[in-house]
Amino acid sequence: MLKLPGLIDPHVHVREPGATHKEDWDTATSAALAGGFTTILAMPNTTPPIFDRDTLDLGLASAKSKARCDYAHFLGAGPNNANWDEHPDIPPRAAGLKMYLDSTFGELRLDDMTLWMEHFINFPKHLPIVLHAESRTMAAAILMADIYDRPIHIAHISLKEEILVIKAAKERGIKVTCEVAPHHLILCDSCHLSLGREGRSEVRPRLTTQADVDALWDNLDVIDVFATDHAPHTLEEKDSDNSPPGFPGLETALPLLLTEVDNGRLSIEDIIAKMYINPKKIFNIPEQKETWIEVDENATYEIRAAEQFTKCGWTPFEGTQVKGRVTRVVLRGQDVYKDGKVLAEKGFGLNIRESK
Ligand code: DOR
Ligand code: ZN
């Protein structure tokens, strides 16, 4: 039996409010516990998006009544809410600010760089800013972090050019950190045939070439965090003509990465650093007392969507053989998951920004 700290996933799309047929605070946090995560940070691209006092209260109300693990909620950066300095009480109640600079449709996408500047200036410097920024947009965002001398965290990097630019920026002392999703380490753009229908391989950032995947593995030390980007859509939606991008990931991340430990490509220390120590530091996550997870590192089995707690009903890793199973999760002294059963009640989870 392997004992690890309660893991932190700083990138989860909970879908509540607005799309609870895909996921909600109950199922997302059940999936989190089953995957070994005791803290999740929720993304703001819900319906409505979470971007001000009223919408943050709305998102947090659902979380408070339903969450089974600890959590915080991101605010979204929009075209009309960069006046954070006028509402200083709001940012500290959130996980941080999420800025969508690429590949997202709707109200939260910011194309105009003058808007980026306003958010960089006005959002408190000691609170995290996370960016969905791909390729050249990412390089522009890193320049802005340098100009305003504030830390930024780049979500789900996937390309060779991205990891090499981040490496160079870190060497220059620019305060940039980054995360990689397990699917970008394990799948590539020619793997989609094995996923079945075309729509099931839709994800943003897209799956990449094998050369990109290799570059991520070659630069593991540049990757600060493994984050799932758990983005559930139902199987019916994925197999429709207009497949929405996104993969579920909470329940597969740790088994997939433990399998890479077994393959000799990762160490347990990498997992602890990138799924606990580094996210805890980057996102100012308080210590959870008497909290750990237990893993049977020799359990070998195939991933099955039918056994998962997520509502979405599918996984891109269906049938994948993995080695390593979460057998027990203890959160604040209580058994919250054991042998396939979620034991935490709805509402047991705490908002980490309120309970400090
Ligand atoms: O694949 C993705 N799904 N990428 C995103 O940026 C958004 C996410 C979602 O919310 O479904
Ligand atoms: Zn995301």
CATH superfamily: Metal-dependent hydrolases
CATH class: Alpha Beta
Q: What's the gyration radius in Å?
A: 19 Å
Assess the beta-strand content as a share of residues. Answer: 15-25%
- The end-to-end span amounts to 31 Å
Reported by name, the CATH topology is TIM Barrel
Q: What's the architecture, going by CATH?
A: Alpha-Beta Barrel
Q: Give the biggest beta sheet.
A: 6 strands, parallel
Low-confidence spans = none
DSSP strand count: 14
What does the average pLDDT come to?
A: 96
Choose one word for the global shape: globular
Tally of separate domains: 1
Output the strand order for the largest sheet.
5-6-7-8-9-10
Give every kind of bound small molecule, once each: (4S)-2,6-dioxohexahydropyrimidine-4-carboxylic acid, zinc ion
Q: What is the count of helical runs? A: 10
User: Order of SSEs, N→C?
Assistant: EEHEHEEEHEHEHEHHEHHHEEEE
